[in-house]
Amino acid sequence: MKKIYFTCIMLSGLFISSAYAQNINPNNNNQKTKAMKFELPKLPYATNALEPVISQQTIDFHYGKHLQAYITNLNNLIQGTKFENADLETIVKESDGAVFNNAGQTLNHNIYFLSFSPNGGGEPKGKLAEAINAAFGSFENFKKEFNAAGVSLFGSGWVWLAKDSAGKLQITKEANAGNPVTKGLTPLLGFDVWEHSYYLDYQNRRADHLAELWKIIDWNAVEAHY
């Protein structure tokens, strides 16, 4: 009898230890661990599909490591705060400090990585093309101004094509994790000028990196934001 009792105690202890290791309440077998709110977006292309403009190595680090770290940090930081159930844009608009930095970079990179296609390039069409011509005179002039803004941005940050509430377009330069939503604008296209986005492929040649990105822009994705 003592042997049976001791065995039951041991099995019970193992169950409780296992339950806590899985973050499950041992007193409630139906309670599940809380799912992560934000997740790494699925790429619509293979990690080597954007070569030679962006190498697979850069995608593996930039998307697989950097973006995943921002998302993980964000999910941890918002637990128990007023942002716990907020959407990403709301968090970017209303937060500051570490929450803003990780939310901003999550939003920025989500737009960035989903703006590419191995079959991209060319020029936009329809209303977006008309808006670009109206704001910048021509698509070629828009590209020149956009590239110049990206090259001239000091340090790390982003250059964006954004629209206001009337649909008028403008180019904005945002430091670090900045996004045009904080200015009441809608981001359409963003180029990342943090060194981690291009250094493995272009070293310090930021201008060359920006010039090459136009070859893989998925204008259907950009137009969807417009």
Summarize the structure.
The chain has nine helices and three strands; from the N terminus they run H-H-H-H-H-H-E-E-E-H-H-H. By secondary structure, the protein is mostly helical.
Mean pLDDT value: 88
Report the end-to-end length measured between terminal Cα atoms. Answer: 75 Å
* Total of helices: 9
CATH fold annotation of the domain at 126-225 = minor pseudopilin epsh fold
The CATH architecture of the domain at 126-225 is 3-Layer(bab) Sandwich
Major sheet, described briefly? Answer: 3 strands, antiparallel
Please identify the structural class as seen in this structure: mainly alpha
What is the 3D form? globular
Number of strands: 3
- Walk across the major sheet and give the strand order: 2-1-3
Low-confidence stretches: 1-33
Description:
It is a single chain. With 226 residues, the chain is mainly alpha-helical. Among the domains are: 58 residues, Helix Hairpins; 100 residues, minor pseudopilin epsh fold. The chain is 49% helix and 9% strand. The protein has nine helices and three strands. A three-stranded antiparallel beta sheet has the order 2-1-3. A hairpin with a 5-residue loop joins strand 1 and strand 2. Helix 2 packs antiparallel against helix 4, helix 5 packs across helix 6 and helix 6 runs antiparallel to helix 8. The radius of gyration is 23 Å and the shape is globular.
